Amino acid sequence: AQSVAQPEDQVNVAEGNPLTVKCTYSVSGNPYLFWYVQYPNRGLQFLLKYITGDNLVKGSYGFEAEFNKSQTSFHLKKPSALVSDSALYFCAVRDSGAGSYQLTFGKGTKLSVIP
Amino acid sequence: DTGVSQDPRHKITKRGQNVTFRCDPISEHNRLYWYRQTLGQGPEFLTYFQNEAQLEKSRLLSDRFSAERPKGSFSTLEIQRTEQGDSAMYLCASSAKSHEQFFGPGTRLTVL
User: How many CB pairs below 8 Å do chains A and B form together?
Assistant: First the structure.
């Protein structure tokens, strides 16, 4: 079975400060990892993914994430937060060896960037 | 914009009625997915199609739920005899050979 944990329901950060949104995962095989962002009353927007290769992946809007296999983590980061980054962020995982295409999502982390 | 579209965006129905939702994926995407999202939770997988074949179904998908993708293009999700617990946002996503799934805006269902 595959699962994702986002340990923080909410993260508050001052505008211009670096931000981190945490994600840990559990899969039987190798993970495919994803971050999505959801704005109010809108669908999920894809930010970035880790499939294989470099542990640091870069995505949309200046976001990046670091894959850490030993800690089974895939934390989302941004060097300088913007007020417009305030939204709900979801981490998702798929087990590459399970023969399944379904994504398992975390419960989400609400990011608030304070002006 | 050629993203994933869903119709209707909102549906209010009475308990016991049947409802049907439609999803139009990105045109070149052969994989289509349905998820359900309730307040305060992440999306939960319901079912997956590759072309017209339904290849995966979650145990969340009770026998009151049925999904089709008859020509490998658009898909419909029908809920029969709706219950208040069916109230949720129903999300459709599509993907091609790349691994990321692209989501539509969702259909919000309210069962009174």
Answer: 56
